[in-house]
Design brief:
The complex is a heterodimer. Chain A is α/β, with parallel strands linked by helices. Chain A is built from six helices and five strands, in the order αβαβαβαβαβα. A five-stranded parallel beta sheet of chain A has the order 2-1-3-4-5, with helices on both faces. Chain B has one domain. The longest helix of chain B has about 40 residues, at about 40-80. Chain B is an all-alpha fold. The chains are: A alpha/beta, B mainly alpha. The interface of A and B includes residues 28 and 89 of A.
């Protein structure tokens, strides 16, 4: 399958309580060729979405009101262990990064990260999974 | 009291980085010309904005380090 077709079929969920961030990332990824993107602004909403949908990739903020990103990651992995979860944070801590990776996070990136890096990480994961 | 202060610093740092992320990404997209042609004069001003964002991010990073160090020192003095 051509790269563009693979990108168009993959479902991505963005979870960040800062709507400006989630909206921006949604538009950016759409511009890059991903057409099946949904956004939520809380961990609870992300977990609900995961129960009813098969997302291949999740961009998940760590610090959020209600259940935080780490707890959300745990619940997401219980629902769909094969979903790739990229943790995004505004407060970098080695301990949290290690914890997230131990719990199955695919990557851990710090705001304001380079969009070119995000593009690369998402594309690599999606292409590897489609092989 | 220290815990409240630390929590606030972390939250501020996180929230500021989130705000700066959308500003940086927006400036970056305009600068690359993806949203339309940008004159060299406009590029200069966008570069100034970009440099300001980078400095602000660096400052937040330093503040975060201070918060973490304070937390570690507080934990050390508790165990003594």
């Amino acid at each position: 399958m051509a790269q563009e077709n693979v990108m168009a079929t993959k479902r991505i969920l963005i979870c960040d309580d800062d709507k400006a961030v989630s909206d921006f990332l949604e538009r950016f990824l759409q511009k890059e060729g991903y057409s099946q993107i949904e956004t939520v602004t809380s961990g609870e909403a992300a977990v609900e979405k995961m129960k009813n949908n098969n997302y291949q990739l999740v961009l998940l903020d760590i610090r959020m009101p209600g259940i935080d990103g780490i707890e959300t990651l745990k619940r997401i992995k219980e629902i769909n262990s094969s979903a790739a979860v990229i943790m995004i944070t505004g407060f970098p801590e080695i301990e949290t990064a290690q914890q997230a990776v131990k719990m199955g996070a695919y990557d851990y990136i710090v705001k304001p990260f380079d969009l070119a890096y995000l593009k690369l990480v998402v594309l690599t994961k999606i292409l590897v999974d489609s092989k | 009291m220290k815990k409240i202060h630390l929590g606030t610093s972390r939250t501020f740092g996180h929230d500021l980085r989130s705000i700066l992320a959308s500003v940086r990404w927006s400036v970056g997209l305009i600068k690359t010309g993806m949203l339309g042609p940008v004159s060299s004069k406009q590029k200069k001003y966008l570069q100034i904005a970009d440099d300001g964002i980078a400095k602000a991010v660096e400052l937040i990073g330093r503040l975060n380090k201070v918060s973490v160090n304070k937390e570690k020192n507080a934990a050390k003095s508790k165990t003594k």
